[in-house]
Structures are given as C-alpha cells and as structure tokens.
Amino acid sequence: MNRIGVSVIICCHNSAARLPSTLGHVQAQVGTEGIPWEVIVVDNASTDDTSEVARRVWGTGRSPLLVVKEPRSGLSHARLRGFQESSYEFLSLIDDDNWVAPHWVARTYQIMAKRYDVGACGGHGSAVFDGAVPPAWFEQFSSAYAVGPQGESQGWVNPNRSFLYGAGLTIRRSAFADLVLGGFRPVLSDRRGAALSSGGDSELCHALVLAGWKLWYDPELKFQHFIPESRLHWDYLRALHRGFGAAAAWLELYMWQIVPPRNLEFQKLPLPESWCQAIRKSWLFQLYSTIQTIRRQWRRARGPWRGQQSEGSADVLRMEWELARAIEIFSHPLQYRKARRSIERAKWLRTTGKSGLEQTLARV
User: Fold this and answer.
1) Rounded CA gap, 43 and 55, in Å?
2) Single pTM value for the model
3) DSSP string over 100-157
4) Helices vs strands, H then E, count in the chain
5) Potential cystine with 336: which of 198, 231, 235, 283 (Cβ 3.0-4.6 Å)?
C-alpha cells in the first residue's frame, strides 16, 4: 500500500517569474496538522533559473521540497516524473500559475481519504489578472482557461463529460499505477514548451473512468488562475481552440468506449451494428464527417471570419477547432487507426477484468 498523504506536484517550464507567488500560496496552507504532505517542483527543460528560484523561495518551508529536472519537453513527461518522485497516495497537480486556497491540502486529503472510489478530483478555478481588463468575451469562454465550475454542485462528474481541468487535478496514485501496469501509455504529450497543445489531463481522466474509477468535483476546492495580459488576446484564444481540436481527434477514441458514437448515418442500411460502429470509427469516415461539419460551420462563421466581427464569435472558435481536428486526422491516419485499436483492446479497460477500484477496495 502507498503511504497516505498529499504530494503537491508543480510542473514548470521557464517559471522563475511565476513560482514565487505559486509557492507562497502553497506555503500558506492551514489545517495540515497530522497530514503528511510534500511539494515537488519538476523543472521541465527550463532555460531560466526555475530550480534555483524554487529552492530559494521555499527555504525551510513547512513541508519537504524536492526539485527535480525532467529534460524531455512536454507536460505529460513532467507529470510522470513528478509521479515517480512522489512519496504519497494523493498526487495534486498544480500549474505554475495556480494560487491554491489555504485549505487546499487539507481538503484534498479529506476527499481522497474518505472516498476510495475516487480516481481523481478537481475544484473550482477563478481568474486573477495582472492589472489588465479582461475582454468582453472572457466570461463566455472562461472554461478554456480552466476557470469556472466543473459541475452544478459537489458530486460525481457526469460520464458524458468524463474529464476535469488539469489545473488543480488530484489523482490517486494507485489508480494511475493500475493503468500503467495494465499497459496504459498516453497518446498525447500535452503542452510542450510554449506550444499550445493540450489534452493530456483529459486523456488521463478518460482512462481512469474506463478502468472503473470515478471523478469527483468539489467547488470548495478552490484555486486562482493567474492570467497575464498576453493570454487575453483573441488570437491566443483561437490558438487554444486549435490545440483543443487537435487533441479531440485522439480523445474521442477514449470517449467512444464510454459513450459509443451514434450511427444515424447508417440507420436505413441493412448492416450489422458492429459494421456500422467500425465504419463510424474509421479515420476516413471521421475525416469525411469533419469536412462536412466544416462546410456547415463555414456558413455561420464566414462573415465574422472575413470581417472585423470575429472577436468574441463562438462560430469562429468552433471553426478553428474543427479545422485542427481534420488536419490532425488527415496527417496521422496510421497512428489514428493504431491508437483506436490499442484503446479498444487495452488490458486496463474495465471490461477486461477486475478494475483498479475493485482491487483497491479488496486491499482496504
């Protein structure tokens, strides 16, 4: 059995300027008496003095601090390194621009220690700006910045959603270990340096659900997301949605195992259901379907796209998402097919044997 406690993992890339505030909020934790916890800063291929700043800011601290370097660029690599270096069962992932509430560690411990069936839990993020006035469209699209609620109230996350923000995501170590032992290997690398790729957190959440674990949302698990002025531009949000769209091409391979795709296109054809599903999931059909969606979407988006009214248009963002998804599928047909088959036949799937949850409950 893993040691019960909280490992706060902060993955960093050139984070020297952001770390002092982030670590300051972690140092301000209250109610941790009797709770074993630690802080791990993963320096992910930084070219600044991230590691030195982390050690200097933390000083003696109120809990142990470990600073490790991960030379492979990519958030997924950094998280994995943090998991490997951690000592405790509850792995709380905090971004280098997340300011957690004073009760973060205590609340995380309370949730995860009380509910053995929770594979991962997430909280409520609110935005903090560096003096800049947020644009009018920010509130409408705030979830793209991991800001806002992740459910109507405290409780289980709807299986049709099956993901939580990567910011402030806490994962049960034994749940992740069961995935790895079952052969799970992430398809997505998530953020890599300054690139706006994404989806690694959603991929992990999907895999946990498929392995038999549940996701929990607690609005009292609060954090602030510091958003600099440079991220409040419309072009940045469009680039974010291109990253979301590219990731969606791979994430849907997991979601199909949770919520099978509908076969409305084949209802009038005398084909077995298994054939319909196979056709529906093929990369060629998905590419065709995406192109058809883009054609329909263009009718709504072409006005804002061409003119000066693009800023704040949900249609433009949807077009960016669909275009990126189509390009991703078209560019990687063999990898797409291989990944789909790998997920469908994965040993860690709940349908292939005793789930990680059942194994954990048997050990308790």
Assistant:
1) 12
2) 0.88
3) E-TTHHHHHHHHHHH-TTEEEEEEEEEEEESSPPPPTTTTTTGGGGT-B-SSSSSEEP
4) 12, 9
5) 283
